[in-house]
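INTERNAL AUDIT FORM
Audit reference: QA-55
Scope: verify that the stored structure record matches its stored sequence.
Auditor: D.O.
Record contents follow.
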Amino acid sequence: MFRNPAKAVAVRLLFIVSRTELARYTYLKFVFDSQTGDVVLDRRVGERRWRQKRVGAERRGVDRRQQDIPRDLETSGWALVGR
């Protein structure tokens, strides 16, 4: 089955850069404009869903995240996400 080129959708890119990699952040901001993709610094401080009380069993069967962004940030200093 062939796709109709008139209905092709461009995928926007989101670069998430570690807060320790300011030079890489500046470079990516220079290279990619807002039409191609967005470049942001990692804004996460800690786990979002932290609770002191115990939680019941997880309702979802699998994790919704397809990519391990924290691991990518630790190993290479940046992560690429298609939107």
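Auditor finding: record pair retrieved intact. Residues 11-44+69-83 form one domain.
Action required: none
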